[in-house]
Design goal:
- It is a single chain.
- The protein has 349 residues and is of the alpha/beta class.
- The chain has 16 helices and nine strands.
- Helix 5 packs antiparallel against helix 9 and helix 6 crosses helix 16.
- It binds tryptophan.
Length: 349
């Protein structure tokens, strides 16, 4: 692995998920444990987690549990890949979980210098409506701002004496005050639903957030007074940008965003990295490789939910029946349709 440290503050992304599972001591995800699995679960994009059995037991036995995620209100754009996390939140909501979505405005202020008022504005105007348009049931979702939730802040202060600086450095690789404060606050975000009602909870995350999960579990185990259930996590693979890079960096040129216009979609898809050959003729003869094609990556993760349809398209691409130009046209069509439906839901909210 090129990047030894995967942490929430840099944007280096993994290339080999199997290695990560081993290295981080994660539990492999077993689809069979979770009823009614969604596309990402069925197709291996959900690959690991921590303490997953606690949650699958709650689902099967209809016992209370919660799922929680956070919004970083740093820009007014929402990366298309966010859909993966929300798909998981929607899944857990449908399986009976209490759902919490917080706006990490204090973390954004501390680590990215985002003004609290500005953060509030874009969270209310863009992020929260996007999350609802992706399928969360607004009436049954508890939204909050870190800066407005004194229970969470008080809990963060109280829990701060349950971690040491050395431990922090071992988990994150460094220790800056703004990051320490944000991490402890995130621990409080993750654990606070249990103050009212002791129950298992799960956090769907990209692997970059795993350090926060480890810290949360360490602190939860030590804060005996609260008698917390150690929080579970479930890991979803990243959606690469259309140019094939796994970096999540906002400056990365060819990333899709929710609310992208038809024109933006056309332009981005036209420049996508494909698994095609150098010329049409060659592709007709040898076929393309859907495994190395970013449009197929989009189809697999989000745009084609029917397994048979996906399989057929992959076969046709491999056999040279579908050329890149046709595939791009098709991807553009699907994306434009997705965005139009999405925009409608976003506006109606
Ligand atoms: N640190 C998260 C991010 O960078 C945001 C966040 C804050 C969060 N608190 C959380 C995510 C609790 C999950 C659970 O995106």
């Amino acid at each position: 692995m090129k990047n030894e440290f995967i942490d929430p503050w840099t944007s280096s992304m993994p290339e080999d998920y199997a290695k990560i599972v081993k290295k981080f001591g994660l539990q492999k995800f077993d689809e069979g444990d979770f009823p009614n699995g969604n596309t990402l679960m069925r197709r291996g994009f959900v690959f690991a987690g921590r303490d997953l059995k606690k949650i699958s037991d709650c689902i099967k036995q209809k016992k209370p549990f919660y799922a929680l995620t956070g919004i970083m209100p740093t820009t007014d754009k929402v990366h298309f890949g966010t859909k993966s996390i929300i798909d998981m939140m929607v899944y857990f909501q449908k399986q009976g979980a209490d759902i919490y979505v917080l706006v990490a405005d204090l973390e954004s202020a501390a680590t990215r210098g985002v003004d609290l008022k500005e953060a509030k504005k874009i969270a209310l105007e863009v992020h929260i409506p996007c999350y609802i348009a992706l399928g969360l049931d607004a009436k049954k979702t508890k939204f909050y701002f870190q800066s407005e939730n004194s229970d969470v802040r008080n809990l963060a202060f109280e829990l701060s004496n349950k971690a040491t600086l050395n431990e922090y450095k071992a988990i994150y690789g460094n220790a800056e005050p703004a990051r320490i404060m944000s991490s402890i606050l995130q621990v409080a975000d993750i654990l606070h639903p249990q103050i009212k009602k002791k129950m298992p909870g799960i956090v769907p995350v990209g692997i970059d957030q795993d350090p926060h999960i480890r810290l949360s579990r360490d602190i939860a185990g030590r804060a005996k007074k609260f008698d917390f259930v150690l929080p579970s996590s479930i890991n979803v693979k990243f959606l690469p940008s259309l140019s094939g890079s796994l970096k999540m960096s906002k400056s990365e040129g060819n990333s899709l965003y929710l609310l992208d216009s038809d024109e933006e979609i056309k332009k981005k898809v036209s420049k996508a990295l494909t698994g095609g050959q150098k010329t049409k003729e060659e592709q007709g003869e040898k076929g393309g490789n859907p495994e190395k094609d970013m449009l197929f990556e989009l189809f697999r993760q989000h745009l084609i939910t029917d397994d048979k349809e996906l399989e057929k398209r992959e076969e046709d691409y491999q056999n040279g029946k579908i050329l890149d130009s046709e595939n791009k046209e098709f991807a553009t069509k699907l994306l434009i349709k997705f965005m139009r439906d999405f925009r409608k839901k976003y506006k109606n909210y």
